[in-house]
Amino acid sequence: MRALRRLGAESVTLVLATVIFLVPFAFMLLTAVKDQTQATDLDFAWPTDWPIVANFVAVVEARDYVLLRAYVNSTVITVASVALLVVFASMAAFVLQRRPGRVSRLAGFLVLSGLIIPPAVVPTIWLLQALGLFKTLPGMILAEVSFHLSFAMLLFRAFIAAIPRELDEAAQIDGCGGFRLFFRVIFPLLRPVTITVILVSSVNIFNDFVNPLYLLPGDENATVQVTLYNFQSQYNTQWNLLFMDIVLITIPPLLLFIFFNRKIVAGMTAGAVKG
Question: Which residues cross the membrane (predicted)?
């Protein structure tokens, strides 16, 4: 009887997951391959024509190939942000975990506050303007690092807690300093959680829409998510091209998640299992 109930619950869960995730994706694909007239109906009707190539070319060529520039900008921002995020978050988490005390508890509280309190756009703009980094890729990279630092630090700190302190002591006896101890002994052990941070942060930063919209305006600085405005206006929306653009900018993070989803789960649970 329990087995039947469990099977029924699993079946219901699978059906719900299919409806929630696959139905919208199927609707997006169907609309992306329709012509403009049929796409305005926004239904699940099978396309009468298949202007796939025409829609693809129109999206790529829109506004002087802004999508290609957006892909370059998003790639640069994602790679640089994730690289800085891994280094800073892992080092800070190591110090906070290995040096308990009032300062560490206060820093931990601030890290949790970074997860709870939403980022303020206007003060961030003021700060970037004061630093001369507003509307620049370096400023956007620093903003992404600061916005995702708290989550990455929590993952690294939980994993580092499972690493025995005897390794630190043995390395220090052998003459390792602080930086050498971390990068030669501790950091190689963080590979599972590092992969998780890289994958999760890459998807979040690549798909970020709000922050580039406010902190990085202008066609020359456009990111892939901002290109969705290319096919929307006050009086008209080209739904087929809009959904084709969504398909093109969804493929990279979707493939990343499909191929590395097991590593994401393994990295997020490794610290808890070892602990």
Answer: 12-33, 76-96, 108-128, 140-160, 181-206, 239-260
